[in-house]
Design a protein that fits this description.
Number of helices: 8
CATH superfamily: Phosphoglycerate mutase-like
Oligomer: single chain
Strand order of the largest sheet: 3-2-4-1-5-6-7
Helix content: 25-40%
Number of strands: 7
Structural class: alpha/beta
């Protein structure tokens, strides 16, 4: 049974700036760098067969931190299949503005029906949420089979990616339709765990972070003061770094 750790990159400048980063290369904040280091430290005693990362800076920085604690033989491998959703004309826009659009509401209720608008400048590519989910799963399936063959059934490996990407992977691994993926929360710097055996997947943990109780207390205090949550670099509507959410369960055929 192979084990894949799905790591969302640490908090980025877009997370705190309230913009939809998409394929823009935004750096980690100081807090995001600390989150990446904490994940890396926690994984020090876990020998990793591979660390695969989205090509975007915020993920590469997180992956490099993980490898730095693994030893000299660990080097992140870049995989385009795990890149962020191609948001097209939405790229770089304010989350607050986007939330006023009808398409945003469709993203929240029926993501399988969503294709993001093309960028008039042609600078940013666009795709549908379904196309994203298919490319991500194809990439994950290819790497899992390859690492299983190279390292055996007990291989433990890491994918460093983005909120909506990881949510789509988890939904598939749980045997859920894409339209259910908004029920999943994936915070910056969190880890989710997927096992696979004989092409059957089991999700044993989601959105793990070591500061869950401290964040719960902070979230309640902020709510009492009427403080709103932060922006993000994904359109999935999940928490970006405010309230905690930890879940466990499920499995599906994959």
């Amino acid at each position: 049974m192979t084990t894949c750790l799905l790591v969302r990159h640490g908090q980025s400048e877009a997370n705190v700036g309230g913009t939809l980063a998409g394929h823009l290369d935004v750096a980690l904040t100081a807090a995001g760098t600390d989150q990446a280091t904490r994940v890396a430290t926690a994984l020090t005693e876990v020998p990793l067969a591979a660390v695969i990362t989205s090509p975007l800076l915020r993920c590469r920085s997180t992956a490099e931190a993980i490898c730095a604690y693994q030893g000299t033989d660990c080097q992140p491998r870049v995989e385009d299949a795990f890149a962020e959703v191609r948001y097209g004309a939405w790229t770089g826009r304010s989350i607050k503005e986007l939330a006023e659009e009808d398409l945003w509401r469709t993203v929240q209720s029926s993501p399988s029906q969503v294709t993001f608008p093309p960028d008039p400048s042609g600078e940013h590519c666009h795709e549908s949420m379904t196309a994203m989910a298919e490319r991500v799963w194809a990439g994950w399936d290819t790497w899992e089979r390859r690492l299983r063959e190279e390292h055996g059934e007990q291989a433990v490996w890491v994918v460093v990616s983005h909120g909506d990407v990881i949510k789509a992977l988890l939904a598939r691994a749980l045997g859920l339709e894409l339209d259910a993926f908004q029920s999943i929360v994936v915070d910056p710097g969190s880890v989710s765990i997927v096992h696979r055996h004989d092409d059957r997947t089991a999700v044993t943990a989601m959105n793990l972070r070591d500061d869950v109780y401290a964040r719960l207390a902070a979230s309640v205090a902020a709510r009492d003061k009427g403080v709103a949550g932060e922006g993000g670099d994904g359109a999935g509507g999940e928490s970006t770094d405010s309230g905690p959410s930890v879940g466990v369960v499920g499995g599906g055929n994959a």
